[in-house]
Write a structure and sequence with these properties.
Elements: H1 2-23, H2 40-44, H3 51-59, H4 63-66, E1 72-77, H5 79-83, H6 89-93, H7 99-107, E2 110-111, H8 117-126, E3 130-134, E4 140-146, E5 149-153, E6 159-169, E7 172-177
Parallel strand pairs: 1-7
Antiparallel strand pairs: 1-2, 3-4, 4-5, 5-6, 6-7
Domain FAS1: 37-181
Keywords: Signal
Pfam families: Fasciclin
Length: 185
Amino acid sequence: MKTFTKALFAGCFALATAGVALAQDNPMVGGAAMFADKNIVENAVNSADHTTLVAAVQAAGLAETLQGEGPFTVFAPTNAAFAALPAGTVETLLKPENKATLVKILTCHVVGAKAMAADVQKMVSEDGGSHVIETLGGCKLTAELKDGMVTLTDETGGAARVSIADVVQSNGVIHVIDKVLMPAG
């Protein structure tokens, strides 16, 4: 019985260690482990800080795309970022008749390449202090370094700071941001 108990304990420990190993290189997001072997949507649904983003992605019909092969870089606004929008904005955007606008806003947060923070910082440095990033939605974001952090300025002049960088996914990377980026017009 002693041998069985030891073997059972060792097996449980090995399983627990394997799960931790898959997430250990990634930061926690919204109180949840982020696993490099899961895709963007599979990880985002576990973040308590991204429930609004997940609802918006589902309402826009973009979940399947973001579960695809990629690679993608997603600048992921938190619930607090969405809450900072004018009252009623999120509710209005989630209505079916506003799907095209919602898709445009969300795809302004997605780049069709995997760009780690060091890559963005290098581009900013090489371009003399700022670098324009084109998104899948056709938006142009201006990346800069401010106080050692990447800041993204959208086409309306709104600025978002990357609060958590380099959350590796099986199909790209997520960078958590503190504001919703908006397209021009």
